[in-house]
Backbone:
């Protein structure tokens, strides 16, 4: 029970990171982006490449930090991966979404995002192979928190949770305290009014893609670190991340945060009563339950 | 003769290409004057204002600001051109607080934002004790004052307003229109679209009547107000006392 709770929180943190990016993109661009979870894959693989490069070129950085399996090389790789993933998100927008947006076809953007997701997923499979990869092959022992009931946690998981929480506080600070944050919220609420108040819409959209891409990169690496890296990360995470976004309410960063934890916890807690094969269905039940009571999600506002 | 701040010359504009809503509309706004655009529903009044600020594509015609022709305006650059625009509804950010709304508008004013904010609050004491409230929680009249405060925060030469009195209680509507009149004493020009014809004409210096996307009649507001033919054709004659 406590073990499931703990695992749920750890998975939830990763889902939250993905959902925050997705909710911002969905709010400002007003379309359901089914390719967002592929950015997590892009992030995970980009970090894998940089990690290998840094471990060879900078052997000093190849040592693990404390008792974690995370190395300094991986930390540096995460930063580089954020750049690559943010740039990929902008590139996808320029190549695909912006062209469709300019023609005013919202539904086409949804279909295009499905197509993009398939392309990215298979391209990654083509380049890196379908085999599972790991950032480190060293065996990481879990720390036993309690023997009866048995509760174990990996220090890597604690570290990822900690970094995730720091990122969330940072986002909260930006959105609630800076005029840049106000302008992001303003564009989400009313793009026309935002523009006549001096906000450059194209620039804001680009920034939102970059933020979404960066958060997805971190989420992807953390998922790879606590699970494994394979080209199907996007496919496996697209629905939980979507569920977190919808449960939280589209456009609400705090909703996405909470939604991630709710979906993560519920999926893991469900393992107590359900066979593990049914666990992927749990997010849908949560969506149904929340939307029945609050049609705009927990923190969502009614949209025009 | 007072300077011409804004001149719109023969513009053709519409949301969809080849389906113009405005067909060669021209207007001229002099410095420190209140100008009102009236006309029946669908005449293109709001489209005219949106075309000036770049929210509706202009396919032909020119827009001059202080005698200089400007290319198609990008909406986010209108403040730099000295234009402010207050839409009819949803003219404040509901999810932001009153203070955040004002700070956002002041962001690009290029002045000391804190100083300008305190100046604005002196001018709009009604907003002082609402600063921390969500703008969505304000009453209709208070929202309109906030929208005007945001519009003048950048010290514009001209403010374009779409039906500032729509949906307001008569007293609040009167308050807003009087505020606009007061603003002109500092040299600001006002171009507004109004449904409340009687009130608008009493307030305005000059009036343009549009119908079916074209200029129909224009002239001094006081003259049009008393013109029985204009009253009957364009302003709903009976309201003005003329026999049908």
Residues:
């Amino acid at each position: 029970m406590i073990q499931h709770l703990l695992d749920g929180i750890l998975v939830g943190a990763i889902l939250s990171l993905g959902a925050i990016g997705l909710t911002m993109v969905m709010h400002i661009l007003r379309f359901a982006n089914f390719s967002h979870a592929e950015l997590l894959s892009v992030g995970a693989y980009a970090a894998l490449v940089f990690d290998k490069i840094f471990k060879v070129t900078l052997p000093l950085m190849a040592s693990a930090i404390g008792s974690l399996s995370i190395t300094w090389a991986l930390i540096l790789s995460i930063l580089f991966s954020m750049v690559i993933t943010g740039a990929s998100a902008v590139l996808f927008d320029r190549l695909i979404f912006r062209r469709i947006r300019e023609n005013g076809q919202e539904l086409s953007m949804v279909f295009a995002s499905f197509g993009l997701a398939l392309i990215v997923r298979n391209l990654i499979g083509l380049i890196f192979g379908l085999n599972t990869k790991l950032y480190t092959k060293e065996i990481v022992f879990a720390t036993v928190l309690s023997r009866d009931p048995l509760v174990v946690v990996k220090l890597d998981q604690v570290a990822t949770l900690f970094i995730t929480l720091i990122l969330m506080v940072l986002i909260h600070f930006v959105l609630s305290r800076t005029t840049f944050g106000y302008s992001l919220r303003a564009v989400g609420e009313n793009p026309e009014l935002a523009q006549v108040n001096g906000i450059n819409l194209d620039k804001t959209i680009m920034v939102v893609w970059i933020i979404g891409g960066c958060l997805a990169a971190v989420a992807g690496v953390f998922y790879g670190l606590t699970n494994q890296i394979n080209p199907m990360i996007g496919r496996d995470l697209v629905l939980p991340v979507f569920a977190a976004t919808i449960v939280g309410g589209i456009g609400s960063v705090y909703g996405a945060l909470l939604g991630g934890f709710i979906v993560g916890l519920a999926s893991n807690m469900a393992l107590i009563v359900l066979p593990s094969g049914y666990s992927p269905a749990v997010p849908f039940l949560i969506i149904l339950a929340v939307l029945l009571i609050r049609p705009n999600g927990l923190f969502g506002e009614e949209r025009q | 003769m007072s300077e011409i701040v804004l001149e719109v010359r023969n513009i053709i504009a519409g949301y969809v290409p080849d389906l113009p809503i405005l067909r060669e509309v021209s207007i001229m706004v002099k410095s420190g004057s209140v100008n009102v655009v009236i006309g029946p529903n669908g005449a293109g009044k709001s489209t005219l204002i949106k075309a000036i600020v770049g929210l509706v594509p202009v396919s032909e015609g020119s827009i001059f600001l202080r005698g200089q022709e400007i290319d198609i305006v990008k909406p986010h650059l209108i403040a730099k051109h000295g234009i402010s625009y207050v839409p009819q509804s949803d003219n404040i950010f509901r999810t932001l607080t009153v203070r955040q709304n004002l700070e956002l508008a002041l962001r690009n004013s290029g002045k000391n934002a804190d100083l300008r904010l305190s100046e604005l609050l002196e001018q709009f004491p009604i907003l002082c004790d609402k600063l921390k409230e969500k703008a969505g929680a304000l009453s209709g009249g208070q929202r309109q004052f906030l929208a005007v405060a945001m519009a003048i925060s950048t010290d514009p030469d001209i403010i374009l307003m779409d039906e500032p009195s729509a949906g307001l209680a008569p007293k609040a509507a009167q308050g807003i229109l009087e505020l606009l009149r007061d603003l002109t004493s500092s040299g600001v020009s006002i171009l507004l679209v109004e449904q409340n014809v009687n009130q608008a004409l009493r307030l305005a210096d000059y009036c343009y009547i549009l119908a079916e996307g074209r200029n129909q009649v224009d002239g001094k507001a006081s003259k049009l107000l008393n013109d029985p033919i204009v009253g009957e054709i364009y302003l709903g004659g009976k309201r003005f006392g003329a026999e049908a």
Remarks:
- The longest strand of chain B covers residues 4-13.
